[in-house]
Amino acid sequence: MTNMRFPFRRLPDDLGLMVLKTMEYHEIFRIAYSLTSKKALSLVQFLGLSLQSAQIKIGWPSIFLDFGDSTIQIKWKEGEYDEEMMSFDDIPINVAVTTRKNSLTFDFVSMEFFPIFEIASFTWSNKGKSIGQWVQHIYSIFRCDWYEATFHIGMIRYDIQSLRTTFPKLNKTVISCFNNKPNEHNIQSAQVILRAFLPYVNDVQMFSVRLQENVSLQHIGMVNLRKLEMHDPPNLNFGDILIWNVEFSIVHTYQFSMRDMNRFFKMWTNSSFPRLRSFKIYGKTIVDWNVLLKGLHLENERRLETEGAERGMEFIIQNCYGTLAEIRVYNDIPTNVSVHFTVSNSR
């Protein structure tokens, strides 16, 4: 009896939905994943399962599905030695699935709740489908308000049409290039990804991405992004930052100057950056308070201390519209400095 298969496809639709509601997420997903029955897939789609987020990685392809109390991680294995994918048309040799279910248990000795995790692993067949087909299929199954994709810049060749077809509703794009000497192919790949998604995404995050004039930091920053985060941007020109139109910005760079930050603050007090809510920069510099605060009218200032040691300073400034902003400068490690600028919600 244990080897008998449940005749799910023969059930009436209403009974089929009732059965689906009793299943674990990975069991429901496997039914939709099988592609053996259009009826089963339509029932899963009708169920309207909600995802908190879906994170897709391209290069060594995988997807992480977060349902809140449960997660599913899917890894498509490329070749016997798990090679880097070459295109979205690649067909994986198999599919590794890991599920994790979070719950609470009550300890009657301590009278406290403790988290417990149930983890299970499976291996599924590839069903003869390519990476691109699987990603599109997953998009069709769930209702999700946040899709993000990480693109590794390597051997894979990207084109704008296939990117937009495979990822029709991205919220966040992450681009990483850890090649010490990026070649022309690496640079062009990053350009293609940015051109494909900049008009549509909310957030962009980049790691060591070298840009060209046709898609520069100026172009990226002038798009109405919610958040832009950059790590080790080559040849950063602070003048590019001064024309950004982003709500939340984070820059990790090799070095920056107090003079540039002073210019940034003065421009904000004179009504520049109307959409800006927060700007953070990390890098090497020498803190010179006279240069940083030159010409600024400070509403308030105080020292920032942790465990009795001074870690930095905090200042409050005001722009021409009466809006307040907080400047925090942390320099607890010599020459390694971070400046956090946060605009207040109230005047």
UniProtKB/TrEMBL annotation:
Sdz-33 F-box domain location: 217-281
Any one Pfam family match given in the protein's UniProt record, by short name: FBA_2
Official protein name in the record: Sdz-33 F-box domain-containing protein
Natural source organism: Caenorhabditis nigoni
UniProt lineage: Eukaryota, Metazoa, Ecdysozoa, Nematoda, Chromadorea
